[in-house]
Write a structure and sequence with these properties.
This protein is mainly beta. About 5% of the residues lie in helices and about 40% in strands. It has one helix and 13 strands. Strand 3 and strand 4 (about 25) form a beta hairpin. The radius of gyration is 16 Å and the shape is globular.
């Protein structure tokens, strides 16, 4: 796999090696050995899948420690703009974001470490989106950031009037209102200290 660094340390794009012929294609979507040696030590414990239609924006979400999650995300069908925002207090990239187009055609994946909020917008008619998490979902520990906070400067790639949101995603705090539970330089992976 090819690892592409982004402007924010720790957030990386992963391009698998795709083998194609007249029958179709094959690629290895995840190898724990390669991921841990080339990206970071992580133990994924849960796989999720969602289906959405054009204009849907999901995010920006995170879970609070000790239930914080890293995510490895990819698109099986369709196309999204995937976004990660640094919310680690004291980080030199605090409030900055990475936005990457992921599609069933480019097979790219994005790794979002703990200490970031995550979301995506659907650019195609529909999308099937998959992601691996390194911690189990804990509804009581959800946190979020307003998707449309002008301070973030995110271009979601769709007109605002076409955006479809859940009721919950309409009422998240701005970056200035957010009380982030993450600090830059803090060990956000304490369970991995013996690996």
């Amino acid at each position: 796999m090819n690892i592409i660094k982004t402007d924010i340390e720790g957030v990386v794009i992963i391009e698998p090696k795709v083998f194609g012929d007249a029958r179709g294609y094959f690629f290895e979507s995840f190898s724990e050995r390669d991921f841990c040696s080339q990206v970071r030590q992580v133990r994924f414990v849960q796989d999720n899948e969602s289906k959405s239609r054009y204009g849907v924006v999901r995010g920006l979400h995170f879970q609070k420690p000790p239930f914080a999650q890293s995510k490895l995300v990819r698109v099986v069908q369709g196309c999204v703009l995937d976004v990660a925002v640094d919310i680690r207090k004291g980080s030199p990239t605090y409030g900055k974001h990475v936005a990457v187009e992921l599609s069933g055609e480019n097979h790219r994946q994005l790794f979002i470490p703990r200490g970031f909020v995550h979301g995506f917008s659907v650019l195609s008619d529909e999308v099937v989106f998959q992601y691996k998490c390194d911690n189990f979902y804990a509804p009581s520990e959800e946190g979020a950031l307003a998707w449309d906070d002008p301070k973030l400067g995110i271009d979601w790639g769709i007109p605002e009037e076409a955006v479809l949101l859940s009721e919950k995603d309409r009422h998240h705090p701005s970056l200035d209102q957010l009380e982030s539970p993450f600090s830059y330089g803090e060990n956000l992976y304490p369970e991995l200290h013996n690996i």
